[in-house]
Amino acid sequence: MTPRETIAEEAGEARIVARSDVVVVGGGPAGFAAAVAARREGCSVTLVERYPYLGGLASGGMVLVLDDMHNGDETTVTGICMEMIERMAKLGLCVFPPPEERRQSAELSRKWARWGVFDFRARVKPAPIVMAAAFDPDGWKRVSNELIEEAGVGLRLHSWFSKVIVDDNRVEGVICDTKAGRQAILGDVVIDASGDLDVAAAAGAAFTEGGYIVTTVFRLGGVDTEEAEEFRFGHPEEYARIDKQARRIIGGSWDFWWLKTPLPGVVWCNCPHMTGFDALAVEDLTRADFEGRKRIASLVDFARANVPGFRNCYIVDVAPQLGVRQTRMLDGEYVVTKEDVLERVHFHDTVARGRDYYTPYRALLPKHLEGLIVAGRHYSATESAQKMSREIPPCMSMGQSAGIAAALALKTDIPLRRVEPSAICARVRAQGGDPGDRPSANAKIMEKAA
């Protein structure tokens, strides 16, 4: 057989299985928020997700702390994100500090820091306790299912995005690979919430590529967290020595390699952090999964033998999704910069926000394409800016605004780029969200119109 590098594919057909006003690709936090928001505005919505659950990196990637949603004085991300938090809390599957305990205090740090609900960007010690939430991944799946059903969103799980349908620079739907063959889902507006800009890139949108750490997140059970914390505070020097060894074995982690979860005796390990992997390459993704599990096994052996409270620990699960932070990023109508984030630049078309930074509507819009808007970590930003603004709550804020923008475009029969940002913000507020159109009084605001 003659060696060859490519195979010619025959043109085929995809059966049309759904038509709706809005099609959302990606059921992670941003896509979920976009779908619910658009449906609440009266649009018919189809949400497409490749995994058998909703939540993306929040549930499948087990990124189990919602942060970057409090600026030290106020909670800045509300809306659908806060609905998720409150509903999970009612089930006993989410924990967050009450308002009176959101401040700097050694006592409060001792009580709350191991939940991960502190200001991780603070330059003071102990870091202030802020509004952030530790949650259970299956709690996220359960509550998101409830909200999707209540809203009446058409959900298609087990549907892997394969191709975008474009006619004369207008996106009209997508084709997915499924067990039942290739299926087409048509819509008047498509929201790319894939996390990797899959839809927009396939449609020909301009983008850049970045790289950052990837993580095989895992949970351990059988941990006596009280014994572990007593050792930390009662024997600080010995603790520091053992903790340093543990972090060296895992090969990269934040200051706390384990955090508490709402489940007694179960801790969350947001590690190992691994560099040098291209999260768009199958070969690298495979190597990262293998490497992560090897490091996890080594850490568990060490923890059982050396870390007080961990002698009876065991692996509960390893996240089914690799923790990917950065791949493709849209090169949109506006590209958010690191300076924009650091200087708290407030834009005339702000429609979403994070802790104390703002997202302009233009950063969700691809150039030269109609009928398509993006939401999530792949929004239009520089590599350095994205690293500072890609947490789950601000991505949900983007998603809620994108869903509402889609609804407004359809209601008034205008292109997405002609939707008034002020109208988007008004509807976000009507849905209980904070789109950032009213900048925080304590922020160093500079208007930047273009």
Look at the helices and sheets and give the structural class: alpha+beta
The 3D shape can be described as globular
How many individual β-strands?
A: 23
Question: What is the alpha-carbon Rg in Å?
Answer: 22 Å
- Work out the helicity level: 25-40%
The major sheet is characterized as: 7 strands, mixed
The rounded distance between the terminal residues' Cα atoms is: 58 Å
Individual helix count: 12
- Uncertain spans: none
* Percent range for β-strand residues: 15-25%
Average pLDDT, to the nearest integer?
96
Task: Please write out the topology.
Layout: E1 15-25, H1 29-40, E2 45-48, E3 65-66, H2 79-90, E4 94-95, H3 106-112, E5 133-135, H4 137-151, E6 154-156, E7 160-167, E8 170-178, E9 181-192, H5 198-202, E10 207-209, E11 214-215, E12 218-221, H6 225-234, H7 236-250, E13 259-260, E14 267-269, E15 273-274, H8 282-306, E16 314-318, E17 323-324, E18 328-330, H9 338-342, E19 346-347, E20 350-353, E21 358-360, E22 372-374, H10 383-387, H11 392-412, H12 421-430, E23 447-448
Parallel strand pairs: 1-2, 1-9, 2-6, 9-22, 19-23
Antiparallel strand pairs: 3-5, 4-5, 7-8, 8-9, 10-18, 11-15, 11-17, 12-14, 12-16, 13-14, 20-21
Helix pairs in contact: 1-4, 1-11, 6-7, 7-8, 11-12
